Batch of 3 targets.
Target 1
Amino acid sequence: MKWVDTLLGRTKPTKANLDALFAVPGAAITLEAAQGLTSAGAAAVCFKPATVSDFAATCNEITELLALSGKDTGSAVSQSEDSYGYDWIVVHDEDVSDLVTTVHMVNSSLAERGFENQLLASVFAFRAGGGDVVYLVYLFKRGTFYPFVPAPGGGERRDNQKELQIQGALKGEVPLEADLSRWFPIWGIPVP
């Protein structure tokens, strides 16, 4: 069937490589050295809510599992919904390695239970010297990262120049999304 898919122009989406998340602690060191950005101690997993009751049970299991693991790591976990109707599992932990481990656990738990099509992105927050927030976004369906920098002063504007600077600093650190049209703005991220 591969040749039929090729003939019809169909392609399979790239399978997410969740182990790429473990490159974030190294990227955090690079961002601090090259851009003066420090981890905000927060990250979140964004997913589309599903209508099946099994999905709600899975989310409850994950929340309980994270509460138990939070006792070991010191991670605080909460769940919220944004104004666009997407669900977020928000993780707070000052230790970047623990933060990444918890985010990886959320993603892999949902994927293992058959909900990988619901997963959209994982977002890691960083702070600039002036307090502005910069995000490193992992696109689940692409298996790549990109920077998202809301422009200072509020509103739905981006600082594209800063995003490109961060991209340059992160080359070789994480798998970067080469198609700039896929660098989607994510407004209303529930992390600082």
Target 2
Amino acid sequence: MRVAFLGLGSMGMPMAANIAKAGHQLVLWNRSRRELRGFEGTPPPFAGSPAEAAQRAEAVITMLADDNAVEEVVLRQGLLDAMPADAVHVSMSTIGIATARRLAEAFAQKQRAYVAAPVSGRPDVAEQAKLWVVAAGEAKALVKVRPLLEAVGRGITEFGEVPWHANLAKLGNNVMLAAMLETFGEVNALLRKGGVDPKRFLEAANNLFQSPVYANYGAMAAEERYEPPLFQAKLGLKDLRLALAASHELAMPMPIASLASDSLLSAIAHGGGGKDWSVLASEAQRRG
């Protein structure tokens, strides 16, 4: 499949490389030219603009930093207008539901196919092609791009034909991760204050929950190992704010999400913005 891949950050680069390894023909675009990593053989070419990248593609994938970047590239830099009539746009960024709806409406007006397919996982997981994909969009479009989603992940959960439902599900995942970091941080602080080794406690918790999330993020928090970041705190705060915006729009109070957001904001205020978002767990110690 001819694929335009836009956005070569810490997640986008390994995702694009895995799509290329699966045998698809890529053209790349990034805001700034980057040295390619993870590609085998002759590297894919770079396009000079989003519109140039999209104009001959069968599928156009964006993996960009935030809502503003997605709207800028897709709607204001000509990507949508340049897409062939039978192409599918796959938005894999974590964005808010209001932005997702605007994108879906814009693609519908142009009679172009649009799929939302945000991913869960960190850069190391992306390199191993073990991300989890949540996807929604027209059934025919989902079938067409499924080989691309399978190339980057270990599994896919589909949420029907309404694209923003996938975006809401992804935000829900991140709220649950943040809630875990908040609760682990509180327990971790309690144990430290009581003279209990948090690493020994983590061993017991891992046997109880048997969760890679507790094992990975719990270890970072127990060891106070927040650098180098696998997911920056400032990006985690962005996602929590998007989830809270959705909660306001849908009139669904989320007090735990609000607490986690405040804790993460406090960590950032104390210099943690560039650290891994597991630094959220350190805020309970500060409060103690």
Target 3
Amino acid sequence: MLTLETLKLLQQTCTTQELNALSVAAMRQELPLAVPNGFAMTSLEKFSPARYRARGTMDTKNAGDFADYVNTNCVLDEFVRIFVDADAMRATAILNWLIEGRYGGHCDNTATLTLEKTAAFKALQAVDGKTQTQLAAAEFFEDFAPMLKFFGKDAEGNSTEMSVAKAVAAVRKLSIDTSKKLESQQDQLSASKSTFDSVRVANEAFPSHVYFECVPYHGLASRTFVLRIGVITTGPAIVLRSIHMEQHNEDMAQDFVALIADKAKDIPVITGTYKTAA
């Protein structure tokens, strides 16, 4: 006759045997398994010798490393998509965008490239539109002298190129002329009096524009930026203002998209960003 304890033992044995069989089947099919611990869904991947699928995030600032990683780890070009955020100069490759060419992937195996600004371009942005002392402006010009070309006006008002040494000397030795003019008019029935102050840069040769040629982002081509040189006579101080920087930003964004398309070979490149939904 079977006792109550014997029946409970048989029930536990059967349950364990069934669970073991289900576990083996689940691992073979790479499926989660409901276990009798609150019946929570549990993945057995951590007990497997290898992951069921590749997933992770690779980040780099080097366009070549980004391209090598993407081209090496994509199974087929049609499974991958690259999204380029041109404003942020960032490209994200989703290596499991599609599975078997038809089914949407988990989109959790990615590589991200964020282009890094060069030191020269950072320095250019730091002075753009900022008021600087004569010393600071002169030292900036001296630090980046190999990248600069200066232009001023000749006696006839035509633009002419100046040497870096001459331009820097003019900035260091800035002369300001101040004059005051009084005009008075007396009529029989009225009288008027006015005063005019005139302030101007007295240097015979002073640069009006500077051309700054540099590589803005690592991986992009060199560009020439034009800066207007202004003088604040009350300082005196120097102000450098870039010309058409918005257009430069648009052009650099297009250069970035072209760079990714070239290095990605046949992988589709889409301008924009992508965020997976739950």
